[in-house]
Amino acid sequence: MDEAKKNRIVAASTVAAVLLIVIFAVVIICQLATIVNMSNEKKNLQEQIRSYEELIKDSENELDYLKSWQYRMDLLAWYGYHPSKN
Questions:
Q1: Residue 85 above 80 pLDDT?
Q2: How far apart are CA 37 and CA 50, in angstroms?
Q3: Which of 34, 54, 66, 76 could lock 81 by a disulfide, CB 3.0 to 4.6 Å apart?
Q4: Is the pTM of this model over 0.70?
Q5: CB of 61 within 8 A of CB of 55?
Q6: How far apart are CA 86 and CA 75, in angstroms?
């Protein structure tokens, strides 16, 4: 094998190795970007879950009030009915 052929093989293998490294780097960067996006989406979804749980808790408290005797009395007073006191 002469020197020129050896140099071409070395150059071709170097280019192939560099291209392989560049491709791996691009894949890793894309994967990291995807991971960061998914992490941010997870945080947003967890915040939405917390807000919905708080809304459910507040709604349960409101439902308990709407089922209470006090609400019925307040509603009667709102419509002008005042039960006689014995």
A1: no
A2: 20
A3: 76
A4: no
A5: no
A6: 21
pLDDT cut 70: percent of the chain above it: 98
Residue 65 to residue 24: CA distance in whole angstroms: 61
Measured in whole angstroms, how far is the alpha carbon of residue 12 from the centre of its chain?
46
Which residues, in sequence order, are CB contacts of 65 under 8 Å at separation 6+?
71
Inform me whether the pLDDT recorded for 86 exceeds 70: no
End-to-end CA distance of the chain: 119
- 83 with 76: CB under 8 angstroms? yes
Tokens 């808790």 correspond to: 57
The pLDDT > 90 percentage for the chain reads 67
